Amino acid sequence: MRALEVFVAIVDCGSITRAAKRLGLTQPAVSIALRELESSLGVPLIDRDIRPVRPTRSGVILHRRATRLLSDVEGLRAAVREAGADNLPSIRVGLVASMTATGAPLIRALQAMADELQVLSGLTPELAQALLDREIDLLITSDGMEDTEGIERRVVLQEPFVVAWPLDAELRLKNLSLAGLADAMPLIRYTTRSNIGLQIERHLRRSGLDVPKRLELDSSNSVLTMVSAGLGWAITTPLCMVQSAIDHTRIAVHPVPGAALSRTLFLLHRRGEMNAAAERVHELATRQLRALLTSAYQRSMPWMLSQITFG
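User: That's the sequence. What structure does it adopt?
Assistant: Structure tokens below.
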């Protein structure tokens, strides 16, 4: 296994010197491990006559299979460690930005699961790459990564999209279609660097709308602050509204006109790894979201709460 790790590092780095630095070994040790691997297999694996070094045809096949095998071994190590401990030594969790609305209670519950907790929050594409790069162990996100092999998924939340506009525009906007809203006021968008922004853009295109891009923002707080200030209307979700922490009495909220639109939050982890931890985090996240959204909308907007599914 160590020889395979050395070989994969050489191919990934394109250099024996850089591979040695990445692995914390000396350059001669890396060269010896490579020669012994080639000798045991009876074929050259690296073309040493070109720079950066590249694998031979046999090396390409070995690199592909070895990368998969090393990932499986790492998953096995994690599973064995997890099974033998009441608490994990460490856990690294990624949270899509709207999940930060759950605040301290979720973080406190996660801290009780491990001796060391790391939490990373950000935009969905960045978090997905962090999971693939093994920078995080678990991820709660709106991207199910269905096209990615080796990923386990658990549904945490399904919520509807809603439209929000300034309260003083309620009478003239209340019964308009999406096209009517786009004509009446500017649409304040989520950036298309985010999964929620991409999902909204796809829905607008499916509805046959080409809405001018005038204001595009990164966060729910920014989007809904602009709405409450009277600068336009937005498409958002119940959880994003809570995460924004704006005064909900300054905006009007209604179902999206026309075809229904919803999003799903998933808990993701690599297959065969962190299974027990994933079950516990799924239960914690679902419970926290139910308490948070029920408290926020049970009295003020029960119609919206009735469209939310937990777990």
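The longest strand covers residues 151-160.
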